[in-house]
Inverse folding.
């Protein structure tokens, strides 16, 4: 072979290599069709605008402007990562149904810091499944039917019976008192009003403040540092409870609090103390703040719609009247099931109030949806509230109109206040029972008006800046039909 031939071979193989490499990289990384959007400032991205406070009955200026400019799916840079924001109900459902396959939960690290690494919100995979199974056992339909309705009833009455005629009180504070008392009782048999319950509540409040603080840095004086301190105080509290239980078992004492979560976990699982703490905290976190704000929202919406108030009152008077005939006193699961119009009010409150605005996910693979690419590893934020306020899906979405839920529910596919898929809210039924039973006693016993024009805002958690002050009139002279 001649030199020139060798050189030719050499050159042509290099050329081939270049061509192959080019094709290969082209194949491997086809030009991505990312959704439109802007990445904002370095590091901060658009996070500040995204988290800016806005009125809770809207999607907020940031979201509205971005949707108008870019459409329902857009890219951004949020919480320090490139992100896809989805306000598309179809994509949101797709994301939730592909949990663990194409997407998985991915909450900011700071949340894991205070809630704990075993918290259900941050766990994924098998460990999430096991913890979820334990929670579902605690929150199962069977338990709600046999025990929880009755206990919810008792705790609602405990709070409402302290309301004085003509007094002014914070509806949100009262709703929190009710949901905290109920959860503390069911998790570790703490009784309302006792010193230890009040102490735990105080710690819990400081713990919550850290979770929702915007600057999750562990520096002296910050809410985040205080939350970490509260976390360890609460851990000690729960450990003391567990030791007490263990001692009683040793002494052969039957545990009277048979039905609480702590007992169930101690006798049915092998969870470590730390895992139990994180489970307790995630149930308190998931179950206290959310359902209390949902109750406050009902109290806020109803006075603006006297017709709904009237129809609710009729429904609940009828339930009480028919119970009187059979001599039954306590509310039951059957009563709850009879509250048809109440269920419309619950759905409408969750639709318009949007207690949880969006959830945190990340893409596990490159995903293509409606022609857009979602790159592997990117943050994905399904905005579940967007569909609820979409005029294409809900006629006059800004109106509180419980009647829209009557009869035809063809739109309920787009209604996802509790998320969906394998991470669907574990407490959704309990939350509805809490709301319905609260409404039952509230509407039968009181009239109320909202004071000071308080209204809900998104901070990004939903809250009433003044605590929703209301003036209550007791409604003792209910005219029962004969
Ligand atoms: C109106 C009240 C409530 C709303 C709007 C709500 C909403 C949600 C949403 C949207 C999720 C999904 C989070 C995600 O996919 O990343 C969730 C999860 C969860 N919720 Fe709720 N929730 C409420 C009440 C409750 C209550 C009363 C409890 C329990 C006592 C509870 C316990 C949980 C738990 C344990 C999870 C995690 C489930 C999992 O990861 O498998 N929630 N909730
Ligand atoms: C869930 O818990 C129940 C006991 O409450 C158990 O029988 C079942 O096997 C568990 N399922 C999974 C998937 O761990
Ligand atoms: C309740 O307040 C109204 C005025 O706000 C007053 O007229 C009425 O007498 C008060 N009733 C009682 C029982 O205090
Ligand atoms: C707990 O551990 C013991 C021994 O390690 C095992 O026999 C038992 O099945 C475990 N129980 C559960 C619920 O995992
Ligand atoms: C309320 O919404 C749920 C979906 O979360 C739906 O299954 C139910 O039928 C709705 N209830 C009413 C009364 O429309
Ligand atoms: C419910 O609504 C859908 C679409 O809006 C319509 O096709 C269907 O006929 C309606 N059903 C009833 C019972 O009104």
């Amino acid at each position: 072979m001649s030199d020139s031939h060798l050189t030719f071979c050499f050159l042509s193989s290099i050329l081939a290599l270049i061509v192959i490499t080019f094709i290969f990289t082209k194949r491997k990384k086809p030009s991505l069709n990312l959704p439109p959007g802007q990445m904002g400032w370095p590091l901060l991205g658009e996070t500040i605008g995204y988290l800016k406070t806005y009125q809770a009955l809207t999607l907020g200026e940031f979201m509205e402007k971005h949707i108008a400019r870019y459409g329902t799916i857009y890219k951004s840079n949020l919480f320090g990562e490139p992100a896809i924001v989805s306000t598309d109900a179809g994509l949101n459902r797709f994301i939730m149904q592909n949990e663990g396959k194409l997407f998985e939960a991915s909450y900011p690290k700071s949340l894991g810091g205070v809630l704990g690494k075993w918290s259900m919100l941050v766990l994924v995979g098998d460990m999430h499944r096991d913890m979820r199974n334990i929670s579902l056992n605690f929150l199962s339909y069977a338990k709600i039917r046999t025990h929880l309705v009755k206990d919810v009833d008792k705790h609602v009455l405990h709070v409402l019976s302290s309301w004085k005629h003509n007094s002014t009180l914070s509806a949100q504070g009262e709703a929190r008192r009710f949901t905290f008392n109920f959860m503390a009782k069911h998790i570790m048999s703490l009784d309302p009003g006792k010193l230890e319950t009040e102490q735990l509540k105080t710690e819990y409040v400081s713990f919550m403040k850290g979770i929702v603080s915007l600057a999750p840095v562990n520096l002296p004086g910050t809410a985040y540092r205080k939350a970490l301190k509260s976390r360890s105080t609460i851990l000690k509290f729960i450990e003391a409870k567990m030791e007490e239980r263990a001692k009683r078992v040793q002494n052969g004492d039957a545990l009277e609090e048979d039905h609480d979560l702590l007992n169930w976990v101690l006798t049915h699982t092998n969870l470590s103390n730390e895992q139990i703490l994180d489970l307790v905290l995630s149930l308190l976190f998931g179950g206290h703040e959310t359902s209390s704000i949902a109750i406050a929202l009902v109290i806020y919406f109803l006075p603006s719609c006297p017709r709904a108030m009237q129809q609710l009152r009729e429904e609940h008077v009828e339930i009480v009247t028919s119970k009187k005939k059979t001599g039954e006193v306590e509310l039951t699961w059957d009563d709850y099931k009879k509250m048809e119009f109440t269920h419309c009010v619950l759905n409408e409150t969750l639709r318009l109030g949007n207690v949880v605005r969006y959830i945190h996910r990340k893409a596990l693979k490159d995903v293509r949806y409606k022609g857009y690419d979602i790159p592997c590893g990117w943050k994905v934020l399904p905005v579940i509230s967007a569909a609820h306020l979409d005029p294409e899906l809900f006629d006059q979405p800004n109106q509180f109109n419980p009647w829209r839920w009557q009869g035809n529910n063809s739109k309920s596919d787009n209604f996802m206040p509790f998320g969906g898929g394998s991470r669907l809210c574990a407490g959704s039924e309990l939350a509805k029972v809490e709301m319905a039973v609260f409404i039952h006693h509230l509407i039968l016993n009181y009239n109320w008006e909202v004071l000071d024009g308080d209204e809900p805002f998104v901070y990004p958690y939903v809250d009433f800046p003044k605590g929703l002050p209301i003036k209550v009139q007791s409604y003792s002279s209910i005219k029962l039909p004969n």
Notes: Residues 186 and 259 are 7 Å apart (CA to CA).
